[in-house]
Amino acid sequence: MRLRPIIILISLVVLVGFIAFRIELALPGTPPSLYNTYTPLTKPTSQEIGWYDVLGHTVSKAEADQLLQTEIGRQELSPENGAVEVSEELVDVGRKAFYLETFGNEYLFTDVIGILDGPLNIGSLSKAILALGGKPTTNLQVTLDEDVTVGNRIFNEGTVLNTGIDVPKGSLFPLGIRSFLDRGKVRVGVTCALCHATVSSETGRVLEGAPNNDVDTGLIIAFASNSAALFRQASANPTEMPLGERIYINKDGQEARLPDIKAMEDAVDIDLLSWPPGNFTSNGDLKNNPSQIPSSYTHGSWPYSWSGVASVGWFHGLTTLNNAVFGVNADPATTADAGGELLGVDKEIYLGTMLQNASNPKFRLPEKVKPSEFFEKIDPTPGEPGFNEVIKMPEYPKGSLFMQNGLMAASPGYQVAEQINAMSAYQNTLAPPPYQPTNDSEVLKHGAAIFNKAGCVDCHSGRYFTNHDVIAQREIGTQPSRAQASKGFAKLFVPPQTYPPNVSVPLPPDPPVIPVPTDITPKEDIELAYAQSDPLGGFKVPNLIGLYLSAPYLHDGGVAASSEAIKLDKKGFKIANPDQLGMAGTLLQNIQPDPSASLRVLVDRKLRKPVVAANRANSDLQRVNVDGSGHNYWVDKQAGFSVKDQTDLIQFLLSIDDDPKVLLDN
Q1: CB–CB of 320/308 below 8 Å?
Q2: Average pLDDT over the chain, rounded to whole?
Q3: Which of 20, 149, 196, 557 is 20 to 30 A from 48, alpha carbon to alpha carbon?
């Protein structure tokens, strides 16, 4: 009789194992409920429902209603002409994609990079989330249960890792991380929400579109087993590394050796561990140059990206920016074909370096094979470059202003650009929740007057506080390394083209092709953004929406100060705690930068000087070119402004929310 329960138990285990092997499951299955976000409490932007975007040219709802009365107008607003109607349905698709769409990057992160092989795995993350007991966190902490060596650092048992991963109140799922169960294999991928949504530490509700300014992507990736696959995001050039024992077949059909696995892994990990929280390297130019994660308050804020390289096509370049995340930056394999021209790393070395130590043995490069031929056998998206779900644009393998590497992120079952256009439409609805730094409207009016008097309005004009210009780096003076990051892509550019937005994916044979106009952005701005007219490049004028949520400041995130760092005395503000200045004294110490204090050190030269010094004294920050220098437009005593002028200006800047109480006269 004792055998019966044992037999039943074994049968259940076998049955569960069989079901688990056959089941396909993705979690979370839905975006956060709107009622668990601040969006219902926020005034939406002025984006209309019913307007049309014709490859970057805007047609208002009223104009569209008139055009649709005639045959010529209907042709102008047809998908065949590149027109996209902004509807509630499109926005809903965009919100779902923002939170849930990985475009298949779970294969890269899990099977190749080995993101789950280290101490930050499903078990440790689940344990940390369960320990919250339903409470929210803006920084999921994981305690190491053994000593771990990563790069040139030893993390001892008991070390608490600050991941910066956000978990909303009552949730079992981190924002922006999606888990997949496929035939018994668990994979994880990332979505836009990992970096571009965060949780209120006070209420646990989701702030949609706010930057996750403490997510430590460098640390998270460094703990993977094959972070060397992301060498393009670091400064570890495979052609300059000592050779290892792995033999491959090179581009000439000859046997050769790939770079040493450990040397490559250590070099990449050292770079990754130097990334400050809230920063990510998205350029892939073989330079260790992370930049601060921006907000997704995008309406009226073109061109996009820190340097303004996303400037043509649908939604005035925003769709190009969204594509860059998944079609270019998040999957290094998408630029393997152009690796020789862009980076001086030919395709075989490129793919061989990525795959020689892949986590999943099925994805690991065998001895004496050609990496490109092996990749074709294991590619989860057969026939398309890279691991992610993409389609080749008409110009591929060349690129264009519209799609930098000639690839567009697009999943089977959708239409061309449907997901990334939908994300653009959704992001353009987002605004920061209401925020009142003061109830005194006279303070805000005086702050706005100082904003004008100090000349801030010369660049930060209009409702969204940007004139849309790209400013030369040599003029703005901020840390120069990132302004040239996209220069290499421009060498491969041809006139941009696309498929109409009603063409299905996968692409049918011989799909129609239409040109993408480039006249929506001044030519001089485009050339400066890509460092063509000036070798130092430039930076675009960002909007000033939601500054109370986006500290630290500048593109490198170097301008920061804690609430204890500066204090007011009879002579004005002075440094009270120099150990809490800059990126070095705030986020690197797990201390949140204070928006008011950080804005004060931005506009006061005497306070900024020790901030820059603190950053430059940190070896990790120097490795990643973070110092908080430049943008030397002062509102301080030396410029003729009082402490009250400076304080009221800061209050005004912090008040720029979804519906500012005071706006500029212009």
Answers
A1: no
A2: 94
A3: 196
Sign of CA dihedral 328, 332, 336, 340: positive
Cα dihedral across residues 80, 82, 86, 91: positive or negative: positive
Rounded CA separation 144/120 (Å): 9
* Token couple for 367: 């001895």
CA distance 162 to 586: 13
Residue 13 has pLDDT above 60, yes or no: no
User: What whole-number distance in Å separates Cα of residue 522 and Cα of residue 571?
Assistant: 46
Measuring CA to CA, which residue among 475, 472, 453, 467 is closest to residue 533?
Answer: 472
What is the mean predicted confidence (pLDDT) over 3-21?
44
Segment holding 218, helix H or strand E: helix 217-222
Q: Scanning the structure block, which residue is given the tokens 């073109």?
A: 302
> How far is Cα 485 from Cα 190, in angstroms, rounded to an integer?
24
Rounded Cα distance, 106 and 317, in Å: 26
The CA distance from 168 to 198, in Å, is: 8
Count of CB atoms situated within 10 Å of the CB of 665: 7
Distance CA 562, CA 588 (A): 12
The span from the CA of 397 to the CA of 628, in Å, is 37
What confidence tens digit (pLDDT) does each residue in 422-447 have? 999 999 999 999 999 999 999 999 99
Contacts of 351 (CB under 8 A, 6+ apart): 333, 336, 365, 371, 372, 374, 375
Cβ count near 254 (within 10 Å): 8
Least confident range of 249-263, 301-315, 474-488, 542-556: 474-488
Residue 470: strand, helix, or coil: strand
Q: What is the rounded CA–CA span in Å between residue 205 and residue 199?
A: 6
For residue 137 the two structure tokens come to 């966190």
Strand partners, 455: none
- Please spell the DSSP secondary structure of 328-361, one letter per residue: IIS-GGGGSTTHHHHHS--HHHHHHHHHTT-SSG
d(CA 564, CA 578): 9
What's the rounded mean pLDDT across residues 46-66? 96
| DSSP secondary structure code for residue 295 in this structure | P
Contact by Cβ (8 Å): 264, 238: yes
Instruction: Determine the Cα–Cα distance for residues 251 and 139; give it in Å rounded to an integer.
Output: 45
Q: Look at strands 470-472 and 390-392 and give their pairing.
A: unpaired
CB under 8 Å, gap of 24 or more: what pairs does 436-445 form? 436/655, 436/661, 437/548, 437/596, 437/650, 437/651, 437/654, 437/655, 438/651, 438/655, 441/661, 441/662, 443/648, 443/651, 443/652, 444/648, 444/651, 444/652, 444/655, 444/661, 444/662, 445/662
Q: Which run of H or E residues covers position 530? A: none
Nearest C-alpha neighbor of 211 from the set 137, 292, 98, 295:
295
Output phi, psi for 525, to 5 deg. -70, -40
Q: Output the six-digit token pair for 154.
A: 């030893």
Rounded to whole angstroms, the Cα distance separating 494 from 411 reads 25
> What is the maximal distance between C-alpha atoms in the chain?
94
